[in-house]
Amino acid sequence: MFEGLSSRFEGILKRVRGKGRLSEQDVEEFLAELRVALLEADVHLSVVRSFRDRVRERAVGVEVSGALNPGQQVVKIVLDELTGVLGGETHRLTFAARPPTVILLAGLQGSGKTTTAAKLARLLKAQGRNPLLVGADLQRPAAVEQLRTLGGRIDVPVFSEATDPVEVARAGLAEARRLGRDVVVCDTAGRLAIDDDLMAEVAEVSAVLEPDHTFLVVDAMTGQDAVNVAEAFHARLELDAVVLTKLDGDARGGAALSVREVVGRPIAYASTGEGLEDFDVFHPDRLASRILGMGDVETLIEKAEETFEQEKAEAAAARLMEGTFTLDDFLEQLKALRKMGPISNIMGMVPGMAQQMKDVDTEVDERRIDRIEGIINSMTPAERADPDVIDGSRRSRIAAGSGTQPGEINQLVRQFREMRKMMKQMGRGPGRKAAKARGGKKGRKGRGGRTTDGGPVLVDKKKGLSLPGLGDLPAGLGGPGGGLSAD
Fold it and tell me: Are 194 and 142 in contact (CB under 8 A)?
């Protein structure tokens, strides 16, 4: 969603970083470019003005004039202020002292309330809670049935009945207490636009439930109109926080950058995909970092910890360093990687990766990964354990079984062999000759016993580093001139 804005910000800040001194005129030119970039991203005008004023106040003051590198200091100021626009601190959900904790979801039709209810219930269940979903949306056909289907997928019970929304809310709360459920997530009806009937119904449901948290579900694709919707609901319901949906869309992102500052309520959660697992706590500092092209290492680590089993990952890493890593291991890691989300999203979390991928005009196509999985699954266990046994007839059989060409089999095997060789070199170092040159096989006495050279792994400048079946990595990430040294 923020690709366009991120690209503009990176270009603007790149010019600022290179300046050893910043005059007031430089700052004004820089702020004018920021203003245009934010307006093009459909950010609310009042937010743009306040953001610009705060950056100007800090950029022309003592904070920058006394800095060793004024350009980098301005980048830090922009990061701080952008984080503030998005909410500053992460909103943490608090739970009632006497269960159940009641969460009411409100919003317009089509904003994704029903799916959000299930996603939130899944997240709370993963945190050790026992949620109950209440379907109080009796306006939209099959809304309750949709909620029941989603609830079945995450093994969370759903309560609803064919009466009216207020009675459903009252009975749902009683059912949660009877079942000993400690969280109630209530889905309410929406309309295509704000009207008195909608507001009256949601207000009545809220009066019955007396929710601990009232969340407004906002479609991030709606741009500035999301701010008007949030203001209208806040005036009637006294919102506690906002949930942004469809952050994986191709809209310009103005809603995310506007709703917090205009409405004065934090963004609690964000939905980044269609899957029920594509939903998480909203971290303003992390999103600001990604918008400025600085990546999001914390989220990447968290996703990896959720997806990869530690013991299996450590065993696979050990085999990789020993040179005994097989295509079965590679396939298992590839499947775990895909569970973390779209590959493009994961790469966006690596600092500098988004810009690198854009510069080399490279994009990882998910269908290419499907083809890799198909190729490996078409191999016999012996071929996956030792790809060197694959000859011409075996290549033809594997290609026919996976719907690919023999040349693709060759490429996958060659790149896998190169990767395994390089990782084995990384684990063992240059070998015995270097050890002898430093004083024998076991190293000198009293020197810690290290017998291999330190420093970077040698990578061919022309070839770079390839991921099997996915092609060469861009510069800076193991390719020519990248982070793995070729010197």
Answer: no
Rounded to whole angstroms, the Cα distance separating 256 from 264 reads 13
Instruction: Give the number of residues written for the chain.
Output: 487
DSSP-derived secondary structure for 88-122: SSPP-----SSSPEEEEEE--TTS-HHHHHHHHHH
What is the Cα–Cα distance from 357 to 184, expressed in whole angstroms?
Answer: 43
Q: Which two tokens stand for residue 182?
A: 């400690």
Task: Output the CATH code of domain 3-85.
Answer: 1.20.120.140
Give the three-class secondary structure for 245. strand
Q: State the Cα–Cα distance between residues 271 and 120, nearest whole angstrom.
A: 10
Give the residue ranges of the chain where pLDDT is below 50.
Answer: 353, 356-363, 430-467, 470-487
What is the domain partition of the chain in residue ranges? 3-85, 101-294, 307-446+458-472
Distance, CA of 288 to CA of 461 (rounded, Å)? 34
CATH topology of domain 307-446+458-472: 434 Repressor (Amino-terminal Domain) (1.10.260)
Confidence (pLDDT) at 310: 62
Domain 101-294 -> CATH class: alpha beta
Tokens of 276: 């029920």
CA distance 476 to 483: 5
In 3D space, the residue among 1, 9, 4, 8 whose CA is nearest the CA of residue 78 turns out to be 9
Residues contacting residue 183 through CB under 8 Å, at least 6 positions apart: 95, 99, 100, 101, 102, 103, 121, 124, 129, 130, 131, 132
Q: Is 260 left (phi over 0), alpha (psi -120 to 50) or beta?
A: alpha
- Whether residue 53 contacts residue 85, with contact meaning beta carbons closer than 8 Å, is answered with no
Neighbours of 455 (CB within 10 A): 10
Element (H, E) at 169: helix 165-179
- State both tokens at 222: 């709606």
Residue (of 307, 331, 454, 459) closest to 385 by Cα position: 331
Question: CA–CA separation, 103 vs 91, rounded Å?
Answer: 15
Identify the H or E element spanning 136. Answer: strand 131-136
Contacts (Cβ under 8 Å, ≥6 apart) of 56: 27, 28, 31
- What's the DSSP call for residue 474? P
One-letter amino acid of 319: R
Shortest CA distance to 245 belongs to which of 120, 421, 386? 120
Sign for the pseudo-dihedral over CA of 104, 269, 88, 24: negative
The closest alpha carbon to 320, from 420, 224, 388, belongs to 420
Distance of alpha carbon 381 from alpha carbon 383, whole angstroms: 5
pLDDT tens digits for range 431-476: 444 444 444 444 433 433 433 343 444 444 344 444 455 444 443 3
Sign of CA dihedral 442, 444, 448, 452: negative
